[in-house]
Amino acid sequence: MPIPITIRISSPTEDAVIAQHFYCMWRDLGVSENNIQPNWLDISLDFIQAARQTLNYQPFVAEAEGNIVGSVSGQRFAGLYPWIVSPDHRQYGYIWGVYVEPAYRNQGVATQLTQLMVDYLQGIGCTKVVLNAAPKARSLYQKLGFGESNLMELNLVSQEG
Prior knowledge:
Elements: E1 6-9, H1 15-28, H2 40-54, E2 58-64, E3 67-76, E4 92-100, H3 109-123, E5 128-131, H4 138-143
Parallel strand pairs: 4-5
Antiparallel strand pairs: 1-2, 2-3, 3-4
């Protein structure tokens, strides 16, 4: 019988768990520990705090047997260039850090977390939601209605470990 999983809003006291999941996500994607900054926890917590104050940051967590086993973060997208377009015409929301511990994968947890975040971002007035999908997760996001974008990339450095 599957273990019941509860999905809920995360509190600021759980930010370190969100940061740990973000770290684990990068490790799962094959990024070597040598290529992750040693102060990754402080960097993550500082980012979360600033996003909470200025970008309507909101995390959600999945909990099983009293432990957080998955998480997602999201906020209004600050933009990569001057944002001169009216927010009612174009206000992007950004989803990041979707992570589920290995023992709880393939049970729909990431789908539920992502959908809850989409609903949250829509609720704060976002007109579009964007995310960067790992190759293994693309089908999950496509099932939720995410499509290909016009983002183009040019790698300028080797992507090894």
